[in-house]
Every structure is written in C-alpha cells, then in structure tokens.
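Propose amino acids for all 689 sites.
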C-alpha cells in the first residue's frame, strides 16, 4: 500500500506541474480608433533573442504558420484579413524552402467595425510555432484580449470611446496616445489525449482456457493494440505532428549520406521506444509483478484514478496545460548537442519531455489501464505506444517523398485533442463505477452510467458537426468528410446506447457499464421478475443472477443444494469490477445452448473476490498467504482461489463434483462460445460417469 500511495503521489505531482517549458514569445494588444466606428486591433509579438515565428503563409510541408482566430459576435465584424509586417525571407536549410519569419518584434493588425455601444471584449486566439537555429517548440495557442467599455454615444457617431485593460509587458511603447497596451492571458493549450478503450483485467498467471488460448496473452495483445492506437493518436497532436518533418529533415540533411541519415533516424526511433519501455518497467518494479492485479478492485485506486483521468480530460479540453519544468529540457537539450548515439538518445529524450503536455495524459491513461493488470502489462503498453511514435521518424527518413502527403499543421490538431478529451472523460467514469460496484453503493447504477455516457457522446457529436465550439477552436469552416463521418459514427453510438436504459444488453460495450442486474430495473422496465426464473422458483439461499440464472453466493449452501439435486457445481470466481467477467456474462452466457446448461445442468456458485461485506467473527481467520486476519467476504473467496487453484485471475470457472474434485481443467476468460459450451459438456459428462 505504501508503494501505491508513493506512485499516486508521483502521478499527482506530475499532473500539477503547470510551468511552461519555454515561453520565448509574449503577446500584448492595443486598439486604435480610426473613425467611422472602425478600429485597428494590434497584436504585438515580443520574441526572445535568437527565436522567431513564421508568416501566415508557409509552403506545404514547412513549419506551422501563424494564424489568428477572431470569434464571431454581434458586437463587431472583422474587415479584411490580418495584416502582417514585412519580416525576413530566407532559404531554410532544414525545410529546404523559402520561408518568411519574424524576429525580435512583430505587429499584426486586424481592422474591425464596432456594432454596439455596450461594453464587450474580444478574445482572439493566436496559433504559432516558435523556432531557433537548433530546434523548434511544438506549436501552441495563446489567447489575446481586447476590452471595449460602454460608449456613451451611439456607435454611429465618431465619438465612440474605447477603453483597454492593461495587464503586463508595459515595457512595450505605446504607438500613440490613443493606444493602451494589454497583455494576453497566457493560456497555452498544447494538450491532447487518446481515447483509449478498456484493457481486460486478468492476472499474469497463464491459466489455459478451453479454447487453448490464455487469458493473459489475449489481455496483453489487447493492451498492446490500444496502446499502439494511443501512440497514433499522440502523433496527431500539436506537440508531436509538426516535429516529424523537422526532425527527419535534420537527420537526412545533416548526415553525410542518405544511409547515415536513415540509420540515425532509426536509432532515434529505437531510443524513443527504450525511454518509454523504461517508464513501464519502473511501474512494474514499483508494484511487483503480481501486486498490480489487486489494484483493479481497490476502491482507493479507482477513485484516485477517476480524479486523475478527470484532470487529464479537462487538460485535453483546454482548461489548463500539463507540462514539465523548463530546467529539465534545458539540461537535456545541452546533452543532445554532444553528437553520436549519445546525442541522439538525448534528442529522443528531449522529444519525450517537450511533448509531455500532449503525450503525458495519454501515457498516464495507459499506465492506469496497465495497472489494473499484472506482470509486464505496463511494459507492453509503453512498447505499443512508443512504437507508434517512433515508426514515422524511421519511415519518413527512408522515404522522404512521403512527407509531401502530410497535411499542414493547423486548427484541426486542436480538434483531435478535444475529441480525445471527451473519450478520456468517458473512460474516467468507468473507474468511478468500479468503486461504486465494489462498495455496492448503487449510486452509479446502469441507467445513470448510460445516461452520462449518452450525454458525453451527444455533446461530442454536436462538436464534430460544428454545432458546439470551445473558446480556443478555429472559426467555423465547412465540415470535412472525415469529421462528418466520425460525427455520424458517434451519433450512431449514442442511438445504440439509448435502448440500454430500458434493459437492452448492449453487447458491444459489455464490461463498461454496470451489469443489468446492477440497475434500478434489473429485468427491464415493466418486468418484475426474470424471464428465466420466477422468484418463487429460486432455491433457498439462491438469487437471480446474470441472465436470470439461479446463483448462490455462499459456497457451503451452493454445494449442499448441488448434492440435493445431484448436479455438478460450477464455481464462478468473479468480481464486481471485473470487466472480462461482465463480457462473459453478457456475450457468452446468453447464448441459448450455454444458458440452458447453466440454468438446468449445473449449480452456479458465484464468489466475488472484491465483496466488501464484513465476515462474521467466527469466520474471520488468519490468512495463510498474508498472515493477516481475513475481515471481508471477498478476501475469503480470494484466499480459496489462490490456495486451491494457484491463481488470482477473474473470471475463473471450475466444474467440480460433490467431493470438491475438479471434473475437468478450469477455464478462465474465453469469449469463444462453442469452446466454452464444449468445456461445460465435458465436465457434465465426467460427472455422470
């Protein structure tokens, strides 16, 4: 537990680091009335020595251009486009093109016409990329603010007054007496996320299923797949995407031969993988290989990570930015200049640090998911994530012509992170649901969970259709085919979930919402009893379990009833927060032939290893595993499973006779319906011999 709290403290410390890595550009604003209710809005960029930003017009394949977003409002209208200064034009050796840039100071102006005499403000967004002769920082966004006081005369007169709020950088001289400086709120929004889906919860133990596969193997492959998708999502974020052409161009142009450039780029990708795998190894080392599985049903773990993922989601949506201390990057950047393999390693480390505001929430989410599994899950997750990050650098170095097909950086990168923010918000709810299930509080029952998910994904659909905009989004433009298609998929998903409020099984998302029996209406609205088993027909001590199957939760009572009716026993080691358990109950057990066996041919005993009900004092014994007193019902069943079957994986199914001897080899998670049915039939045949 001490290790758990140390790790949690570390994660919260990281999430609360809000100092900007580098901030070589600051912006101030000014307003000048030019008559006829028209005003010139000036955005003044003050750029640190040796740094520069780029023009609004940059050739395809180059750095991210500077752009400005003025939100639509009835209070004013923009006249023409933003006018930029003369700047400097050079033949850039890295991007191999002629590029216009601005250094030291640049003043951009936008003309507007005032439409109201009421007080109002304009919160515009500047999107820009800042570079020096050696490196570039990921593109960022900053908000610039113009404030207009109420005019005492109608706006059609020429006596309209403008008052401005001065905030900082007062060292910049005013352009004339009618201009007052104001600073921006320094809200950089380089954050993104990854939707990530659930990672199956199973132990490191390699308990073989009836189909010949192992649950841990399937679990790790699933984790790897979604981690790889998370890495791909991270590529299309403002912190990583613009770095691809710049980094590849550096290796190919600074190397003496093309082969050397490809070699260095591949080495760069390998070092990226090594860095993230080391991170996964540290998580495994902190907890130990077998301790991670216990976290899946730990109430503190689930609540803490619900809050942590909520913080990540808000970061993705632009509420704030998560970054690392600037001193880290300074030291690493110095090391990267050493050259050779050593220098390339520190270049890869610099990428990991400088892109943390975008990749940090994704990495954190993957580690949270991996922490609900055991063994090498964190290592596998980090390998999948880093592989997706590293591949483009090697591929584009080998085939530089492919870079011409890359889309230009722009506001669409922010849309990616917002979408991932919504997905992160939905995922966070699963951890809160786990805590509620383990404690059996019934505060977040199935209907409530689905209602919240429906709301989240409905808002996401409206966002994709352009009906909702966040403060840092680009102005409305025609919706692309890709965005429209994704919006249709999300809206279809919403429609799919709605029948779940009335008891529909929703097999495609089984394991995420609470089970049907954990709801206000377990049998669907309008049905007071199960379709399979009338309450009056239930054996004494049994309950109506998943799919209406008569289920015992007391081992001795279930075994006694099995002897009475002369049927084999099926022990179901399960958990309230077990994702794979719900998948089996909602995808495999409802199959007619499987359901018939579970209803008629076996006696089901479901033992919840995370059951927090206190044990009677006469049943509280000292654990043979930990040496501590077993205080909860779930601890008793977990002890039984570990001592007798040498595993702590859930689900875990055992068919046994009345002498408590196994009838065949136990089965773990196995979504193959036919294989699971054959396993049931094998045990029943052995019982009848």
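Proposal:
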């Amino acid at each position: 537990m001490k290790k758990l709290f140390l790790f949690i403290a570390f994660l919260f410390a990281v999430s609360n680091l809000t100092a900007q890595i580098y901030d070589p550009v600051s912006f101030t604003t000014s307003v000048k009335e030019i008559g006829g209710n028209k005003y010139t809005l000036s955005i003044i960029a003050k750029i640190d020595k040796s740094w520069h930003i780029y023009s609004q017009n940059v050739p395809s394949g180059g750095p991210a251009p500077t752009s400005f977003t003025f939100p639509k409002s009835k209070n004013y209208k923009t006249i023409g486009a933003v006018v930029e200064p003369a700047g400097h034009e050079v033949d850039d050796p890295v991007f191999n093109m002629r590029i216009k840039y601005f250094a030291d100071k640049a003043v951009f102006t936008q003309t507007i016409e005032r439409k109201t005499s009421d007080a109002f403000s304009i919160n515009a967004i500047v999107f820009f990329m800042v570079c020096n002769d050696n490196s570039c920082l990921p593109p960022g966004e900053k908000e610039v603010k113009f404030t207009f006081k109420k005019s005492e005369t109608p706006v059609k007169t020429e006596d309209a007054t403008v008052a401005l709020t001065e905030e900082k950088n007062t060292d910049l001289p005013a352009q004339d007496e009618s201009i007052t400086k104001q600073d921006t709120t320094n809200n950089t929004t380089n954050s993104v996320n990854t939707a990530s889906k659930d990672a199956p919860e199973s132990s490191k133990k390699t308990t073989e299923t009836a189909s010949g596969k192992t649950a841990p193997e399937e679990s790790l492959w699933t984790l790897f797949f979604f981690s790889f998708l998370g890495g791909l999502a991270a590529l299309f974020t403002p912190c990583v995407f613009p770095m691809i052409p710049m980094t590849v161009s550096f290796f190919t142009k600074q190397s003496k031969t093309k082969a050397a450039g490809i070699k260095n780029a591949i080495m760069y990708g390998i070092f990226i993988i090594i860095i993230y795998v080391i991170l996964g190894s540290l998580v495994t080392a902190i907890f130990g290989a077998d301790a991670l599985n216990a976290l899946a049903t730990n109430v503190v773990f689930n609540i803490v990570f619900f809050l942590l993922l909520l913080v990540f989601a808000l970061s993705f949506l632009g509420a704030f930015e998560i970054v690392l201390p600037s001193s880290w990057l300074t030291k690493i950047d110095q090391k990267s200049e050493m050259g050779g393999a050593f220098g390339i390693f520190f270049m890869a480390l610099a990428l990991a640090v400088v892109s943390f505001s975008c990749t940090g929430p994704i990495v954190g989410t993957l580690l949270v998911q991996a922490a609900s599994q055991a063994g090498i899950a964190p290592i596998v997750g980090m390998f999948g994530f880093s592989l997706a990050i590293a591949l483009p650098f090697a591929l584009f170095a080998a085939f530089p012509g492919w870079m011409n097909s890359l889309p230009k950086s722009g506001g669409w990168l922010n849309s990616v992170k917002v979408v991932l923010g919504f997905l992160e918000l939905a995922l966070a709810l699963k951890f809160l649901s786990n805590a509620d299930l383990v404690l059996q509080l019934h505060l977040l029952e199935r209907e409530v969970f689905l209602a919240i998910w429906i709301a989240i994904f409905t808002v996401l659909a409206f966002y994709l259709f352009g009906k909702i905009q966040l403060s840092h989004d680009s102005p409305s433009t025609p919706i692309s085919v890709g965005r429209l298609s994704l919006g249709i998929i999300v809206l279809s998903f919403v429609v799919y979930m709605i029948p779940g409020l009335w008891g529909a099984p929703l097999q495609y998302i089984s394991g995420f919402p609470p089970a049907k029996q954990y709801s206000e209406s377990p049998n669907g609205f309008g049905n007071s009893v199960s379709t399979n088993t009338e309450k009056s027909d239930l054996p004494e001590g049994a309950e109506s379990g998943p799919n209406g199957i008569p289920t015992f939760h007391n081992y001795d009572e279930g075994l006694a009833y099995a002897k009475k009716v002369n049927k084999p026993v099926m022990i179901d080691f399960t958990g309230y927060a077990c994702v794979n358990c719900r998948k089996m109950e909602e995808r495999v057990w409802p199959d007619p032939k499987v359901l018939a066996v579970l209803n008629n041919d076996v006696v089901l005993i479901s033992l919840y290893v995370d059951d927090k009900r206190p044990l009677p004092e006469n049943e509280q014994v000292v654990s043979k595993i930990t040496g501590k007193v077993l205080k909860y019902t779930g601890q008793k069943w977990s002890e039984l499973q570990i001592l007798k079957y040498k595993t702590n994986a859930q689900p875990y199914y055992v068919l046994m006779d009345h002498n408590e001897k196994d009838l065949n080899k136990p089965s773990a998670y196995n979504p193959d319906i036919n294989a699971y049915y054959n396993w049931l039939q094998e045990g029943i045949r052995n019982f009848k011999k």
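The CA atoms of residues 64 and 409 lie 5 Å apart. The chain is about 40% helix and 15% strand.
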